[in-house]
Every structure is written in structure tokens, then in C-alpha cells.
């Protein structure tokens, strides 16, 4: 799927609010508890549907955020700075869209500014805004680059993500200690292999 189209679609979809009530969602969790063979009326499980829905609000908080708006406040007084801006090893937790199990890893995000920069915490917030959704790592990688390019209009953007997928480690092939890496470049990073190498060396 075209990453820019996918990123744009997700931002538009943020305006669409679910019509499902918390009570209906809790009933759905109760059904799933029964489906696995448990008794949802057992003392230890009575409050579980409510707790699950509360946790979902944290796990999927990204659907209530517009990542480009997080980058709307920029600073142009950079005294002629002309090099890579890099935020390394940003931890994140996401959930696989195929099995709804955790993806846990870290990302390094860099961009080559063109007259303006953004507060570094905003890059971490953009990562979380996309991570706190049902995701694939490949899609999230492309979405973050696309978002930064559109909002900051830098000379180029680079990202490297390394993550463990619990859909592989806790089910299926059950292979532990395996991580997946993705990276994507745009602008000057895409055009200049030396810049790519610099970025990758900087994050080591």
C-alpha cells in the first residue's frame, strides 16, 4: 500500500468516532472470556471486562491523536544549523493488527532540517501516535517518515526501527529473542548513500 495514502487515511479516520458504547465493548470482552472456556462471573473475572476496556484506551490512544498536529509548532531561529537532528532509541509499545498481540521495540528518528526544527519530545509523541494503534512495523515506519515530511518539510527524513513481535515469540513458530528491523529514507537521505551511512552509524 502507498505509505502516504495510508498515513493520510489514518489521519482522516481520527475524526470518525466509534458508536459502540463502553457497556457494549465490555459485553464483547465477557463473550470472549466465555469463548475460551472461563466463567466471566467468577470473582476474579468480574471486573476484567472493565479493566480490559480501560487498558484498550491506553493501548490504542493513537486513534485520538493527529500526528501532524503534534509537529505544528516549529522553531526557525536555529542560527544556521545545517546537519542531521537525531533522536535515538525511543522505546515504544504497539499491537500487531493480525493478532492484537504486542510489538515492543525502539526507534531512531532523524531529519535534516530546512530552516526550522521541532521540539525533540514531539518526535517521540509522533512515534507513539502511530504505535498506539493496530499496526504492522513496515506500515508504521512509512507513516512516520511521511508525517514528518509533510509537517516539517525537511530536506530529508530517516528512521530505523527494531522490535520484537509477540505474534512470533508467544504463538505460531514460538521463536524468542528474534527482532525485526525496518528503515526508510526520504529526500536527501534517499538520494545520498553517504548520509544514509552517517545516520546508521550515528544510531549504533
In short:
This protein has 204 residues and is α+β, with helices and mostly antiparallel strands. Helix content is 43%, strand content 22%.
Taking all Cα atoms into account, the compactness measure Rg is 20 Å
Oligomer: single chain
Unreliably modeled segments = 1-14
Q: Please name the CATH topology of the largest domain.
A: GTP Cyclohydrolase I, domain 2
Share of residues in strands: 15-25%
Task: Name the features.
43% helix, disordered N terminus, two-stranded antiparallel ribbon, GTP Cyclohydrolase I, Chain A, domain 1, alpha+beta, GTP Cyclohydrolase I, domain 2, elongated, 9 helices, 204 residues
Task: Please write out the topology.
Blueprint: H1 3-13, H2 22-35, H3 48-59, H4 67-70, E1 74-75, E2 85-96, E3 102-112, E4 117-118, H5 120-131, E5 134-135, H6 137-152, E6 156-165, H7 166-169, E7 180-185, H8 187-191, H9 193-202
Parallel strand pairs: 2-5
Antiparallel strand pairs: 1-4, 2-3, 3-6, 6-7
Helix pairs in contact: 1-6, 2-3, 5-6
Question: Could you describe the 3D structure shown?
Answer:
The protein has 204 residues and is α+β, with helices and mostly antiparallel strands. It has two domains: 11-59, Orthogonal Bundle (GTP Cyclohydrolase I, Chain A, domain 1); 65-202, 2-Layer Sandwich (GTP Cyclohydrolase I, domain 2), CATH 3.30.1130.10. Helices cover 43% and strands 22% of the residues. It contains nine helices and seven strands. The strands form two sheets. Strands 5-2-3-6-7 form a five-stranded mixed β-sheet, sandwiched between helices. Strands 1-4 form a two-stranded antiparallel ribbon. A hairpin with a 5-residue loop joins strand 2 (85-96) and strand 3 (102-112). Helix 2 packs across helix 3 and helix 5 packs across helix 6. The protein is elongated. The two termini are 30 Å apart.
